[in-house]
Amino acid sequence: MAGMGDGYVGTAQDAVRIRRLEKQREAERRKIQELKNKTASVKGQAGLLQFGSGTTEILETAFKKETIGLVTRDQYVEKRVNIKNKIEEEEKEKLQKQQEEEARLQLEKRQKRKIKGSSRLSFAEDLDDGADEEDGENKSLEPVQLKRGKFGKDPTVETSFLPDSEREAEEQAERERLKRQWVCEQEMIKNEPLEITYSYWDGTGHRRVIQVRKGDTIGDFLRAIQQQLAPEFREVRTASVENLLYVKEDLIIPHQHSFYELIVNKARGKSGPLFHFDVHEDVRTIADATIEKDESHAGKVVERHWYEKNKHIFPASRWEIYDPTKKWERYTIHGD
């Protein structure tokens, strides 16, 4: 085929696209050349401050351009002074513009803070925007000064539910004082004397009276009883305190419980109260079933061996271990 030896030259569309690209490249080259020429002309102007150049360098450059050729001494001095004054004026104008811009930015910041603060606090006092209105002349002469108002709270708003470290510290101190006072009062109660009427039970009763403290435990009470009964009863003298039992109102009270605990909790037994330690009977002249009987029976002190031997026989058959969590709604006697 003719023309194949010269190489492929493309279609008509390719030729059009190539000419369009060449025009675009030529236009870009012209723009770049214009920018270079403009930059060179700007650098050559002596009256403009160049970025990164010092005042002395700018002054010398401008002075050299103005003193080309022969000049007299007066002309030399005059041109140098004129150029220096011109550069100083340009610097002053630039500094003044910077100050005005900073003042404008500060004013905008104050106005934004004012708007933000007044919208955030519903109970804040209105900000004072300035002094009272004055004459127009004074306003034009004196700069505007913004006064900052004091933020406060509305005294009618309830704030007792808010955290208050001082109030909490006072309340904590008062609680500690009341706690110490209560503990001191309870210690005084525990040290009060308590007279107890009891009966040593070995099948028959041997009633005695002994005095202890309200804070003493049942174990302390039985130890004192052992010392009191040892000269008279040989089995008590040879028995240990752990082998002695205290039975009050048909309940065997463990050694770790104290009389203070029974009194404070108003403990109840099967046949009477556990917080009365004397002996008295209900002497009401009129029977009233709606009123509980007020009777207190002497507690029994027994030896554990005797109890294990006779616990199937009355009255030991009614006895059971005292449980503080168990409540007795009414008193019963003789198994009823």
From TrEMBL:
Q: Name one GO biological process term.
A: chromatin organization
- Asked if the Swiss-Prot or TrEMBL record annotates the protein with the keyword NADP, the reply is no
| Alphabetic keyword roster | Coiled coil
An example of a Pfam family matching this protein is: XAP5
Q: Which residues form the FAM50A/XAP5 C-terminal domain?
A: 193-332
Protein name per the record: FAM50A/XAP5 C-terminal domain-containing protein
Coiled-coil intervals in this record? Answer: 18-45, 73-115
**InterPro entries for the chain:** FAM50A/XAP5_C, XAP5
| Bias type Basic and acidic residues, positions | 164-173
Q: Name one GO cellular component term.
A: nucleus
- Compositionally biased intervals (Acidic residues): 125-136
In this chain, the stretch annotated as Disordered covers: 124-173
Entry annotated with the keyword Ribonucleoprotein: no
